[in-house]
Amino acid sequence: MNNFLYVVSYLSFLLLLGVLFRSKIKIFQNLFIPSSVIGGFVGLLLNPNIFPIWKNIINIEWYSYLKVIPGILIIPIIVSIPLGLNITKGIKKDSINMGLILFIVTFFQLCIGYFVNYIYVTFFNGNIYKTFGAELNAGFAGGHGTAGMIGRSIKELNVDYWMLAQGIATTIATVGLILGIIFGIYLINIGCRNGVTEKLKDPSAISEELKKGYEKNINKQDTFGRETMLTTSIDTLAYHCSIVFTVCGISIGLISFFKINKIPILSKLSVWSLGMILMFFIWNIMKKLDLEWSIDSKVKSKLTGMFTEYAIVAAIATIPIVTIFKYIVPILLILILGFFGTWKIIFILSKRYFKNNYYYERGLALLGTSTGVFLTGLLLLRICDPKLETPVLRDYTLGFSLTALLGPILIGLCITLSFQYNTGICIILMGILFLIGIIIIEYFNRKMSRE
Fold first, then answer.
1. How open is the CA angle 319-151-135, to the nearest 5 degrees?
2. Nearest-angstrom CA–CA distance, 417 and 111
3. Mean pLDDT for each consecutive 10-residue tract of the chain (451 residues)?
4. CA-based angle 192:366:334, to the nearest 5?
5. Residue 101: what pLDDT?
6. What is the per-residue pLDDT for 233?
7. What is the distance between the alpha carbons of residues 187 and 189, in angstroms, rounded to a whole number?
8. Which residues, 6 or more positions from 390, have their beta carbon under 8 angstroms from its beta carbon?
9. CA gap 411, 173 in Å, rounded
């Protein structure tokens, strides 16, 4: 129990250091590097497994706990997705288009990841594990939390390289997030000079608050969310948290029951996928019982956002640098092909389907979330649309909600298929889905233009 408290305290300390460095160091402000990423790198530099100089200062045992935290926290993060979700409310053509583009990018990234695996093994006689490839999409579009899902999914297959896979996914997530922000800011500057951005005309107009990462003016600070519960009964955040963790607990119990009794198919499910399915049913029951009022999506997002911050710090602090360096060639290949392929696809499709409709702002939001996390896309959008006056945020949020439900399932499916069969199956499947996605978005827009 004391170890748990020590580890959480240590992660909190690293987070606070990240906030401090972000608020004081200009380069972090100008590059908009998140505090959790900065704190994670501080933790990596203090890792006694990598730098023995710290062995007498920092308990080496803490890092053995840190490495499993991303895989634990990904469960409530993913399980909570359906709670409070109402994707049919206010959904429009532009929201569907943004969701379809994110799906197409997901298929592309999974296909590229396994394609690099196939090429590296077949033509270069590279020695790499069977499931290598899913890390690209998990790291880029999923982020550091999903890197924990990679580790957990592979660990559930009873193979010993789960820590390496989680480390590679974390490395890709870190590079993708930083590169996405830097390249996104570069594109914003180019767009401003060429008059493509609708609202931002001068890059120097970016507020200092946005750069430093905090707002001192109390009147301008955003609200946390609705107080759906009264404190005479239960704290609102505790209420949301209890629902999420209850479903997590039920999922863990059911998975154990399925495995003990060797129930076909169900025993192969992961905890997070079963939990997400259960949450769908629970949320629908709550709606039928007229309990929608008790859930505030913003409060839930803050809860999962907190889990994500801790998952990022823990994931980066425990990256197995020495081992990962052995796979530097395939990692660089999927990073280069994945990043620039993602950028090209997003802006080609955005320009085609959002012509004269904030295509540049939409492309930046999609690029941010496809190389980092949802908040990365929101950051880039807020830079080029400071007051969020355009309809992009609404469409982006709804479009993201569509893919957030199926993205983790696709990653888990690819891991299972590549482990049981070969990477060729995943390449073919994702390639076909990529083409189907292109056909669907083209057909959908032609149909809408005729109506």
1. 75
2. 13
3. 82 95 89 89 88 79 85 86 72 86 93 92 83 87 76 78 86 89 89 80 69 80 86 92 95 90 77 86 93 91 89 88 86 93 95 89 92 83 80 82 75 80 87 95 88 65
4. 110
5. 95
6. 92
7. 5
8. 198, 199, 358, 361
9. 15
Q: What is the pLDDT of residue 320?
A: 84
Do 183 and 190 meet the contact criterion of CB atoms below 8 Å apart? no
Local structure of 233: helix, strand or coil: coil
Indicate the pTM of the whole model.
Answer: 0.82
**Taking Cα atoms as reference points, which of 88, 86, 77, 87 lies closest to residue 286?**
86
Helices (H), 194-270: 208-212, 236-260
Instruction: State the Cα–Cα distance between residues 261 and 122, nearest whole angstrom.
Output: 40
At 1 the pLDDT is 56
Cβ 192 vs Cβ 160: under 8 Å: no
Distance CA 57, CA 48 (A): 9
CB hemisphere CA count around 348 (13 angstroms)? 11
> Could you tell me if 78 and 275 are in contact, meaning their C-beta atoms sit under 8 angstroms apart?
yes
CA distance 350 to 225: 32
